[in-house]
Amino acid sequence: MTGTAPTSDLTGWRATPFTGAGLTHDVYEKGTGPGVVLVPEIPGMTPEVLGLADHLVDQGFTVAMPSLFGTPGKKNSTPYTLSIVAKLCVSAEFRAFALDARRPVADYLRALVRDLAARTEGPGVGIVGMCFTGGFALAAAGEDVVLAPVVAQPAVPFPVSARRRADPGMSQGELDGVVSRTKSAGLCVLGMRFSEDAASPRARFDTLRRSLGDAFEVIELDSSKGNAGGFSKGAHPVLTEEMRDTPGHPALAARERVVEFLRERLVPAAD
């Protein structure tokens, strides 16, 4: 695949410590309009993640990004990523390998979405989780204020066994809470992954489909051999590193659907 992903930097972002569920992280915020929590992927708030964040700001949202790991603004590299993964593997906050697990970081995100909803306009907030944080974002959708959860290539628990590949990345109780909201409040979930992505396995999406039914909208980008988008078999980050600002590009279409999904649920209809 040719070209490069959109990038940005920390210009204009305001960092403030936020404490919730006994955890404290800096949260970077920018923009006006309905609130969206954007949870960075491994290794953290890279220029590509900031490119997505600034795009959402430009589309009329207040974006809050918790810095859960990594150095904000630092470029991705293999040594950097491996150093972050090594730390996350042993962190009790994230429980990267645990099955059927309620993770402390999901409780932190619940507190953050409640705080953002209280400070921004609109009927509620959205949340976008990617890669390592995809399941955390969906777990936070048990909160009534979350109206637009987006789950991009969820990769936790790390898929090192068949049971972990099928695990939804949250406890059964948390998943039951999200399912209940799809029935009682009409909640819908947008999920996306690459077709050949072993880090975010199809079995995980199969579990979510069985649980959420028609309330789970799935975008699966073709990364099989010879695919039209030019993606490699190892393609993983749908909305960041694999994104290209090229008309007709599959990942661009996925990002456009994310913006549309957020607007449908967070922007009040004109009278």
From TrEMBL:
SUPFAM superfamilies: alpha/beta-Hydrolases (SSF53474). Transmembrane segments: none annotated. GO terms for molecular function: hydrolase activity. The keyword Coiled coil does not apply. Keywords: Hydrolase. It comes from the Bacteria. The keyword Hydrolase applies. Residues 32-163 form the Dienelactone hydrolase domain. This is Dienelactone hydrolase. It comes from Actinacidiphila alni.
